[in-house]
Design a protein that fits this description.
Blueprint (H helix, E strand, L loop, with lengths): L1 E2 H4 L17 E9 L6 H7 L5 H10 L15 H13 E9 L6 E5 L2 E2 L10
Antiparallel strand pairs: 1-3, 2-3, 3-4, 4-5
Amino acid sequence: MVRLITHNLLACHAKGCTTNNFPLRLQDAAVELRDAEFNAEFVRGFLPRLEWKALVGAARELGDKSLPEEMPEMVDEEFLQKLHHVLLEIHIDEGAMVCPNCGHVYPIANGIPNMLLAEHEIA
């Protein structure tokens, strides 16, 4: 399933697309919320790996405005719960991810992103 924890790690890898290829824009996303067990240490440990602005932007594209624009300096339990929700409970079942640079479309069907490229698109 495409969750925002996964989306935050994906960039376009089409031939010649090496700049401005992250984050992929979400398009026509069908979202489902699914409960996931909260693990504060996992969420806290993942924090340094996040591209914050990309995560907040993607969450807002999907209608979730629970995260602040800037990552807070003080990370408390309430913040970790909100981050957990955005990262792990928002599932994108259908739609697409689109490269902001070259416009390549990566479709999402049944929760699975198709990141495969045609032979002529491979770097």
